[in-house]
Specification:
The protein is of the alpha+beta class. It has four helices and two strands, in the order αααββα. A two-stranded antiparallel sheet has the order 1-2. The longest helix has 10 residues.
């Protein structure tokens, strides 16, 4: 069954949210919208917690830029379209 915009609106209201609370999303870049989705996604948080990153290997490029290379593949991160999970 396909949900209508009214269904989404009613579910927001039932959670105490208003559509106007999300007006700022129209001003975001695609990558910022993606982050807004990811930071609220429980599966993403689970995969991030299960990831064991370790320290990346710094590689200095000729133009004096430092590239941080992961020590191994991060399969859980790759499932989200990422190279690795960022630890901050």
């Amino acid at each position: 069954m396909e949900r209508t915009m009214a269904d989404y609106h009613n579910s927001l209201i039932s959670c105490g949210l208003r559509l106007g609370d999300y007006d700022y999303v129209q001003l975001l870049t695609r990558s910022r919208v993606a982050w807004e989705y990811l930071r609220r996604n429980r599966d993403y948080h689970r995969d991030w917690r299960l990831s064991k990153s370790g320290q990346p290997i710094p590689v200095r490029l000729r133009n004096d830029t430092t590239l941080l290379r992961a020590r191994r593949r991060f399969v859980r991160a790759e499932a989200w379209g990422l190279c690795t999970f960022r630890r901050s």
